[in-house]
Write a structure and sequence with these properties.
Bound molecules: ligand LOW37U6P
Number of domains: 4
Radius of gyration: 28 Å
Distance between the termini: 47 Å
Number of helices: 27
Shape: globular
Structural class: alpha/beta
Strand order of the largest sheet: 9-8-7-10-11-12-13-14
CATH topology of the largest domain: 2-enoyl-CoA Hydratase, Chain A, domain 1
Length: 663
């Protein structure tokens, strides 16, 4: 197995002999060199194999050039040899996506010469003996002409456009296309020179650092810990064979699909007859489409539907996904506690309600945890596993393990309003509304955020998820109501600045895409094409006039800083409160759950890149200008980190520990 270069070395001195001359020496050798590929050959590992004269792979092997996912390109000749071996279109696919391919697919591409189910080295030795006398001139890939389709210029143009569209500001995929274009248009030596130049730019880029940090962050979140000291390596999960989902709305349906696709038996309960019928149809459709894509049989028989909560009596784990209403959820947890076997884990898919209050409804509160999925639950990779003060390490370990089995990136977090993701989203959304009050338009705010790399700006995202969702929560919190004395929507609630703009839109029935109107207008309800809405612009003008607000020019920098730094500040509060164990947890949640651009590493890594002192200074500036917005007040941990000389992100945990021990 060769997983390529040691990524940890990229930040410093690389050990070992330089790879490029070594690969050239192998390729130039007068004796045949056969690569025997077992396990995986990625990155530099595959580049080495491409320098060999033949490649034999075990049938279970996987190969790929994943450098792009680390902000790099295949810089040891991979971008020049692969297109010469398998053709430009296939090489562009592999190099720009970084995807791993199976041995069978590699054989189809002509990337390997033979696959075997036996001992690969033995087969490779026999192969070498067989070809020992054959001339090698035709086996040196660097000498191959790069076979291009006749419309290669059009192909490169199309791929470049697609890559620019999907890269969301990432530079490595673009450099990968440029490197392959060099292979297609230049002699090998000049192509290698171009590869070297492009790699030199990428190698020292902030994006490469961010992506390499994120590679390790993803792995670090699996090593969860709880404030009690319980940890991933000392807490054993209990196996789950049969699970139940309660409530088959959008979330419940997605969760059911995710469980069934991973091979779990699922009892899916929905008490409303009509909703149950619709859910059955929708779930079957999702399973069938997913199975077709993956070329397997749909897991329809894994699911038993029912209207009665009694039918979950024998399951090992339940995920409640009923409407986001505490009273309703409490009732469901009381019923579950009465119906289920005492050892059943009871989990809630709440997106921010208090897990502890739910645990209190049950006989075994230590078996209660949150399992917060993200919509669509069968697609989105993120799962927040939320432990309350009573949750046992066993329950956390089991939920984390289940998450892994259904293909999620699971992050264990503490219990607080909104957990990590939605708690940090609140100041971000709040700033976006304040910016509208002060003179910005939804289009401008979204444009700035999308240029930064978010898949969708805050207003397009709100229109997609539905404005009524937050409205209901604000009503339940007693926020979204007019001032009882004046009947007017006030801009100050509970002692702090509040923007009622979202509530006012909801009062007009503007719930976003689903109603065809929200922060934007749509051709029809359900349409996804957002268009600026002149009505909204007049509405904002009238609103400002009513509240004597003078619109001022808001620039790109102000949008970005206020939206992102207020969110980051909340991230520091979360660390200070011990809700997330480390910055990596927050970053992984934001990349996988909130489309934070991965090449910026996540909000906490981004803060480190910008410079903590700069983040602090800008927050102080904005807080001075808006003293009624507490989320702009720099938090203690941020100040402490700056006072400690802004240590690298890998050292933050030490400062956090000190700050927490002083609390
Ligand atoms: C001037 C230019 C000259 C060019 C020089 C040559 C340059 C070559 C470029 C490269 O080779 S870039 C690296 C390309 N390779 C990769 O991107 C592979 C990354 N790894 C993976 O995708 C996966 O780890 C895996 C290999 C598919 C295995 O997955 P699995 O789920 O089985 O295990 P993990 O938990 O992911 O990993 C286990 C453990 O190993 C660490 N690790 C894996 N790969 C690397 C690596 N390439 N460098 C350093 N560390 C690696 C991983 O972090 C885990 O560690 P932990 O401590 O247990 O968390």
């Amino acid at each position: 197995m060769h997983s390529g270069a040691d990524i940890k070395e990229f930040g410093g001195q690389m050990s070992g002999p330089p790879l490029i001359p070594m690969i050239h020496a192998i390729e130039a050798a007068s004796k045949p060199v056969v690569a025997a590929i077992e396990g995986i050959a990625l990155g530099g590992g595959l580049e080495l194999a491409l320098g060999c004269h033949y490649r034999i792979a075990h049938s279970k092997a996987r190969v790929g050039l994943p450098e792009v996912t680390l902000g790099l390109l295949p810089g040891a000749g991979g971008s020049q040899r692969l297109p010469r071996l398998i053709g430009v279109p296939a090489a562009l696919d592999l190099i720009t996506t970084g995807r791993h391919v199976t041995a069978a697919e590699a054989l189809k591409f002509g990337l390997v010469d033979q696959i075997t189910d036996h001992n690969t080295v033995n087969v490779a030795v026999k192969f070498a003996q067989r070809v020992a006398d054959q001339p090698l001139d035709a086996r040196r890939i660097s000498t191959y002409p790069c076979l291009c389709p006749s419309d290669v210029a059009v192909l490169f143009e199309e791929v470049m456009q697609r890559v620019r569209r999907t890269a969301r500001g990432a530079i490595a995929p673009i450099a990968c296309v440029q490197a392959v274009r060099a292979a297609a248009t230049l002699p090998y030596n000049q192509g290698m020179e171009r590869e070297r130049e492009l790699m030199a730019t990428l190698f020292t880029s902030g994006q490469a650092r961010a992506l390499q940090y994120f590679f390790f962050a993803q792995r670090a979140v699996g090593r969860w810990s709880m404030p009690s000291g319980a940890r991933w390596d000392t807490s054993k999960p209990r196996p789950v064979h049969k699970a139940a989902v309660i409530g088959l709305g959008t979330m419940g349906r997605g969760i059911t699909v995710a469980l069934a696709q991973a091979g779990f038996s699922v009892v899916a309960v929905e008490t409303q007859e009509k909703q149950l019928m619709e859910a059955k149809q929708a779930i079957s459709g999702m399973l069938e489409r997913g199975a077709k894509r993956r070329g397997v049989a749909p897991a329809l028989d894994k699911i038993n539907y029912g209207r009665n909560i009694q039918s979950v009596a024998d399951v090992d784990l339940v995920i409640e996904a009923v409407f986001e209403d505490m009273a309703l959820k409490k009732k469901v947890f009381q019923q579950l506690s009465a119906v289920c076997k005492p050892s059943t884990f009871l989990c809630s898919n709440t997106s921010g309600l208090d897990i502890d209050q739910l645990a209190c409804q049950t006989r075994n509160p230590e078996l209660v945890v949150g399992m917060h999925f993200f919509a669509p639950a069968h697609v989105m990779k993120l799962l927040e596993v939320v432990y309350g003060p009573k949750s046992s390490p066993l329950a956390v370990a089991t939920a984390m393990q289940l998450g892994k089995k259904i293909g999620k990136v699971s992050v264990a977090v503490g219990n607080c309003r909104g957990f990590v993701g939605n708690r940090m989203l609140k100041p971000y959304l709040e700033q976006a509304l304040f910016l509208l009050e002060e003179g910005a338009t939804p289009e401008f705010v979204d444009q700035v955020l999308e240029e930064f790399g978010f898949a969708m700006g805050v207003f397009r995202m709100s229109d997609l998820s539905g404005l009524d969702v937050g409205w209901k929560v604000r009503m339940a919190d007693g926020l979204a109501m007019p001032d009882p004395t004046t009947g007017q929507p006030t801009r100050l609630r509970q002692g702090r600045r509040y923007s009622p703009l979202g509530d006012l839109l909801c009062e007009q029935g503007r719930f976003g895409q689903k109603t065809g109107r929200g922060w934007y207008q749509y051709d029809k309800p359900g349409s996804q094409v957002a268009k600026p809405d002149p009505w909204l612009h007049s509405f904002l003008d009238e609103y400002r006039a009513r509240h004597a607000l003078v619109a001022h020019r808001i620039d790109h920098q102000e949008v970005l800083e206020r939206c992102l730094y207020s969110m980051i500040n909340e991230g520091f509060r979360i660390l200070e409160d011990g809700i997330a164990a480390g910055p990596e947890d927050i970053d992984v949640i934001y990349v996988f759950g909130y489309s934070w651009p991965r090449h910026h590493g996540g909000p906490m890594f981004y803060a480190a890149t910008v410079g903590l002192n700069k983040v602090l200074e800008r927050l102080e500036h904005y807080y001075q200008a808006h003293p009624d917005v507490p989320s702009l007040q720099p938090c203690h941990l941020l100040r402490k980190l700056v006072a400690s000389g802004s240590p690298p992100i890998q050292k933050w945990r030490e400062v956090i520990k000190k700050v927490r021990s002083q609390l």
